[in-house]
Amino acid sequence: MLRYAARRLAAAVVVILGVTCVTFLLLHVEPGDPARAILGEHATPQAIQALRRQWGLDASLGSQFTRFIGDLARGNLGRSFVDQTSTSSLIAARIGQTAALVAIAAVFAVLITVPLASAAAIRKDRLADHVVRALSVVGLGLPAFWFGIVMIEVFSLQLGLFPVGGWGSSFESHLRGLILPGLTAALAIVPVLIRSLRVGIVEVLEAEFVATLRSKGLGELRVLMHVMRNALIPTLTLLGVNIAYLIGSTVIVERVFDLNGIGSLLLTGISQRDFPVVQAVTFVLAIGVVLVNLATDLLVAWLDPRIRLG
Amino acid sequence: MSLTVDLTEPFVPTSGSGFWRRALKSRSLVAGTIIIGLIALAAVLAPVISPYPPDQQDLFHVLGGFSSRHLLGTDELGRDELSRLTYAARTDLKVGFLAIVFPFLFGTFIGTVAGYYGGILDTITMRIVEVVMAFPFYVLVIGLVFIVGTGVRGIYIAFAVADWVVYARAVRSTTLVVRELDYIAAARAGGLSDLRILGRHVLPNTITQGIVYAMSDIVLVIVAVVTLGYLGLGVQPPTADWGAMISSGQDFLTTKWTLSTFPGIAVAVTALGLSLIGDGLSDVLRPS
Amino acid sequence: MTTFGDRSVSRRDVLRYGAVGVAAIAAGGVPGVSSAARKTLRRSSVTRGGTLNFARSIAPTTLDPANTIIAGDIYTLDKIFEPLYITSPAGKLTPWLATGYTVSKDLKTYTFNLRQGVKFSDGKPLTPADVVFSIDRARTDKKGPLSFLDFAITSLEAKGSSQVVAHLSAPWAPFISDISAFCNSIMPANFGGATESAFFQNPIGTGPFTTTGFKPNAASITLMKNPSYWQAGKPYLDAVDFKFVDDDNQRLLQIKGSQVDAIDLVPPSQVSALKSDSSLKVSLWPSWQVDLLVMNEKLPQFADRYVRRAINQAIDRNALVSAASFGTAKPGGSFFPPSLQYYWAGTPTLAYSVSAAKATLAKSKYPNGFSTELLIDGGVQKWQTFAQIIQQQLKAIGINVKLRPLDHASFESAFQKFDYDMFIDYAINDISDPDEMASFELDYHNGGSNSYWSSYNSPPVTSLVHAAQSEFNPAKRAKLYAKIQAAVAQDAPFVPLDYPPYIYATSTKLNGFAVNPGGAYRLENVWLA
Amino acid sequence: METALAVEDLTVTVARPSGRFRAVDGISFEVAKGRALGLVGESGSGKSLTLRAIMSLLPAAARMDAGVVRLKGTELPHAVRDVRKALRGRMAMIFQDPLSALDPLQPVGAQIAEVPRRVLGLSKRRSWERAIELLRLVGIPDPARRARAYPHQLSGGMRQRVVIAIALAAEPSVLLCDEPTTALDVTVQAQVLELLEDLRARLELAIVFVSHDLAVVRQLCEDVCVMYTGRIVETGPTPEVLAHPLHPYTLGLLDAIVDLDHPVAAPEPIPGALPDLEQIPGGCSFHPRCFLATEECATAVPPLAEIVNAPPSHRSACIHSDRLRAG
Predict the structure, then answer these.
(1) C86-100, C162-176, C264-278: which range is least confident on average?
(2) CATH at A289
(3) Are residues A48 and A176 both part of a single domain?
(4) How far is CA C490 from CA C356, C363, D18, in A?
(5) Which one of A43, C412, D159, D203 has the largest count of C-beta atoms within 10 Å of its C-beta?
(6) Could you read off the pLDDT of C179-207 as tens digits, one per residue?
(7) Could you tell me what percent of chain C has a pLDDT over 70?
(8) Is position A3 within any domain?
């Protein structure tokens, strides 16, 4: 396990380095440059040059990169052009909402996927299976924001069960306010998860050991417990692989539900052409993905003796 | 795209003899082809079958209901909804297909080469893939569209950068399996050049896997284009596109729900058709 | 010396147009000014306390009255700071921190009597020195976009314990109206000892509400009741929570879902749908607002008068209003809104005609048209609709328009940096005198905005604007403004698109809410049932 | 001799997109206590489905349409749930791939102990002790330590011993073996076979042993049934059948294996391939591949019948068996 963890950690470090380089380049591959983007098309060359100097964009790429890495090492993700505050403080103030949203969405995704995928797998090629598969195909083609709009219409406006948006001020209101967004974000990946997990459970069910369990004379419930434990591993792996997509979807979900997480910070940064904010949020989200992937891999390893002891 | 669909187990597709016989027997493949065929036909013939130009406004007859003049009514600018739907099919199918051309070709090529040669080339490629995959898909696409500019061009560039990694990863794992097959080993032992083996024996096998994935990928691309349209970063007005139609129709959800529902249904049906083709193809190509 | 309590004489025109507006709206079954005003008077059963949740479209970036013209800032800071006069919901100038004034015979010296017993939110009394400090600050700050309003003032002095004297360089007709502008709001002299930036983070004013720890572009801001407010027993509310939601739809959802008690900028398309909701009240308020398509004359194509005229002729404003305002607005003609004093109904505007537009364009340097960009505030549904219509209509004369939607803050900063080809925005006359709008939109050098960032600069028009400023005779002034409107209609620096009302949706629990034609609403009379 | 297991007229159909097809077509056999019966055929001949039908472990697409299974003379019920209950402690099964036959996430001891614990209702401690006893019984050295190992940590042979231990945990009288040695190395195969032989003798087990490998069957089984397209085409005492095959298919199978003791000729494959379920030829289903086939063969399904000049226990479903006898 330790050796596996060390290897996995080393790979994660390499990916984080790559992520850092890509994020840095994000600011520099721009056709034209951020200074022009901020000042507008009719700005004078002098003004642009002055702004470039102010942001250190006139230095060589190498020295800019060194400075970027140095700043990162000190936890400094840059200063917002618009708000003139540090991007790390902007992110820190909002990351809680996004993290809570992702967590709730992941829980919902599992709660929806596992029963549906199990039902489809157990009743393979029967009506339940066809219904679940058809739903997941159609679901794949429906954009997340569409789910969000429909859910606001139904659950908030018609039934009045949940707020139409916003974060609220108490823990209870946070929770209530996150249910619909969490569900929406979850539904964005549920079709994929169902399709994959169904295949996974079918494989487990068709695995010889299930026949062994039955031939042992165990009750069906007991057999199902074994199956579930085995299906948990591909579920977790899948969730880990798709967490990036889930995190990406929260950007849109935050917009639909008027949440002030770092997803909406990203969109604001983009519409205000606030490069440091865009850069910092992209970086933080990518690091988040790497860390979540690492965590799920380690969790799976811990659950699976084949990796843990292998 | 960083959504991972059923790609965990690589399979070695079979092609050649019997493909068409089995293809015709696959109900999902036939159904999917008919659905997409009809939509594509409507898209291609849009200028012929649409009763009105898609951007012709009739400002004195906005939000009109179903009528013989406007079968599906008119939108908030008095434009014919049916005409816009068919023209939007043109836009979205075109953008969907074109956006995956580069990822498909490049990803399949890179995945095949990395899987076939292995070693340092493979390691480096896979690390790059992991780095790209670390960026949440929408974050990467939104960021790239922001950098290169909104509109169709931005979408193409964003997908070119973000989407090839999925093909590369899936095709690589297939290649790892194919590489070990007896006939490939025999071909190598027989002194055939790598180029010839790759071109004649490996690629024909891996490319089918790419095609299968491409079907569900087009769905995801269309959904992404639609989502970008919702964020105002997608296809720019007045070009008709289902995403922009859904998001502008959202303003009239309570008064004229059909405005955002019809394009929504169009996306769902297209998705259904493409998924059926994808499922059918993988059944047909996967040896039983 | 003549004493004026209130210059209600010159308000008659406004009231007439206001009444027309109200009548038109009342015909549509929407509560207008009069019924709301009546409600305010019925005070017997006022409920005190509670927090008003108000979702607004634009977040404030500053609370400094002298350094903004942005709605998000103005409608926040005017709850904290107050001027000597204000404009009532009926459009009347009303004595506020002053109780009245006297004016010298040469019309160049005004003496204001300050209201007794007014205290700042820190409990300190209002003094003449505070008034002198505040207005001096507003008029001498050259960066202040509305400092031109105080152009005529040469000096201010405190007189005794309750009077302030203003000396003008020349007779200045809009003077009291200018004094009522939010930029001339009163704050403690020398910021009460604080630094300027610290003061505007924790502002102290005489208004009904206060706030602490202000941050620009926050998602929300809470205003607390000012316990020292000079109107005894007011405000009724304990607090106001402004939430800033730039997306039209999300704002609508929040009021429909009862998450807030009021929203602003209701899209016209939603008015009829919202009216069917019995828990809501939709109100349309007559405005001194005109929506403009502004063209950047720094660019050669828009410097060409034929191009601007062709664009004016190519845009069918009747169709635009029919499609986009759902019967709430009137099609644009003069750049003055009809409700504004000295609006001239007979202004010779350029009529819609595609063939005439083509003919005009043919005379320009761009006979075959050109490609250009239209900048809009992408969060507002109405602008998106307008933009798409304009895009389509200009295509008919060979002008290809690409839309450039930005979020509100970027949109504002883009056109203020002249980073645009064309943009659509609204212009509101904040005060009762039309001089503000005339100067702001036409006086390139002294209007504070280079003619609404269009760079339109016509010396004859500018001198007419200046003449109107010192003309006290209403009939003569009306003639001057008629000439101005005619000249502008022919020069066509803008396309006045429509004259919309302010549209608010409020919960039925909300009482006493009223908006003045300048777009400002006061909250000390508001209570939640 | 006491009959431990009897199967009569067992029929299994499989659902395909184009309809239901017979994969096992009315087969019957019986096994006595302490004896082993081999079920031989190519993969796809229906032999594994036969075992799974008996255990009621059929995959979702397959269904047992007819047939009676008797355990010591008692007919098993038809409902799946009831069958499983009725089988407890009486019949068990072992599988081809011991790795996939074991739950990868549980230590092997726990997987064995689960049977005494859940099925026999023993205490937790007693169950664990029983698991270790069973591991010792199947010849695993150091059983107390191995009980804590996970399947992937054991060798193939060890795993198959564990699978056998699980099967024996409920003390069954009948053991169904589905190609239990196919996935193993040759040397390990031999050890496992020895173990099975030894257990059969000690525990008086009746064994049904499915294999495509005639050599393995010859070693373990007194009797053999040869299956083709879901039917038994020949049955009889193993030495007799192998020495004097009375069905051309059996002959083909024998020709196809290399006889290491008498390497006289290269193995000769049967021409053609096992037909797909959906395209089983009419009449004797082997006739298109058969060197003896006549027109008559294509008209009717030949019954499994006693053959003149052969022992009565040796029966064949070939109308031309006399020509094999002669030749």
Answers:
(1) C264-278
(2) 1.10.3720.10
(3) no
(4) 14, 15, 80
(5) D159
(6) 999 999 999 999 999 999 999 999 999 99
(7) 92
(8) no
- A12 in any annotated domain: no
- Assign 3-class secondary structure to C118-156: CECCCCCECCHHHHHHHHHHHHHCCCCCCHHHHCCEEEE
Whose structure tokens read 């994929």? A192
**Is C435 within a domain?**
yes
Domain count, chain B: 1
ipTM entry:
0.74
Facing B59 at nearest CB: one of C272, C319, C384: C319
pTM over 0.80: no
Decide if B15 is inside a domain: no
> Tokens standing for C485?
């409107």
Determine the distance from the C-alpha atom of residue B111 to the mean position of all C-alpha atoms in its chain, rounded to a whole number. 19
The answer to the question of residue D258 being in a domain is: yes
For residues C28 and C283, is the Cβ–Cβ distance under 8 A? no
Residues 194 through 223 of chain A touching chain B, CB cutoff 8 Å: 195-196, 199-200
Place of tokens 């959202």: B250
Q: Is A244 on the interface with B (CB under 8 A)?
A: yes
Cα separation, A135 vs A194, in Å, equals 10
Is position A146 within any domain? yes
Q: How many folded domains does chain A comprise?
A: 2
Instruction: Check which CATH number belongs to the domain holding C13 and give it.
Output: 3.90.76.10
Residue with tokens 């009750």: A219
Token look-up 């002055």 returns A50
Q: Which amino acid makes up residue C415?
A: F
CB C414 within 8 A of CB C335: no
Output D270 or C197, whichever has higher pLDDT.
Answer: C197
A215 contacts in D (CB within 8 Å)? Answer: 55, 57, 87, 92-93, 167
Does a structural domain hold residue D111? yes
Question: Using CB atoms, which residue from D101, D119, D152 is nearest to A208?
Answer: D101
Chains that touch B (3 or more CB pairs under 8 A): A, C
Domain co-membership, C268 together with C293: no
Which residues contact residue C260 at a Cβ distance below 8 angstroms, ignoring those fewer than 6 apart?
C53, C54, C55, C243, C254, C507
Express the helix, strand and coil content of chain D in percent, nearest 5 each. 35, 25, 40
Tell if the CB–CB gap between D100 and A207 is shorter than 8 Å: yes
**Residue A128 domain boundaries:** 97-309
Residue B68 reports pLDDT greater than 90: no
Tell me if chain B has a CB within 8 Å of the CB of A58: no
Torsion-angle region of C327 (φ positive above 0: left; ψ -120 to 50: alpha; else: beta): left
Show residues of chain C in contact with A96, CB under 8 Å: none
Q: Is residue B96 part of a domain?
A: yes
Banded pLDDT at C34 (limits 50, 70, 90): very low
CATH number at residue B153: 1.10.3720.10
Q: Using one digit for the tens of pLDDT, what is the confidence trace for C401-448?
A: 999 888 777 788 889 889 999 999 999 999 999 999 999 999 999 888
Is C429 found in the same domain as C522? no
Confidence at C10, pLDDT banded by 50, 70, 90 = very low
Structural domain boundaries, residue C18: 2-45+82-192
Our answer on whether C and D touch (3+ beta-carbon pairs < 8 Å) is no
How many structural domains compose chain D?
2
D261 pLDDT higher than 60:
no
If you average pLDDT over each of A195-204, A254-263, C298-307, D288-297, which comes out highest? C298-307
Mean pLDDT on C280-285:
94
Q: What is the mean pLDDT of residues A81-108?
A: 89
| Confidence band for C98, pLDDT divided at 50, 70 and 90 | very high
Are C86 and C231 found together in one domain?
no
Residue A304 in domain: yes
CATH number of domain containing C304: 3.10.105.10
Which of C248, C273, C388 is facing B77, going by the closest CB pair?
A: C388
Q: What does the pLDDT average to over C336-348?
A: 94
**pLDDT reading at B9 higher than 60:** no
Give C234-253 pLDDT, tens digit per residue. 999 999 999 998 888 889 88
Q: Residue B57: which of C248, C389, C405 has the nearest Cβ? A: C389
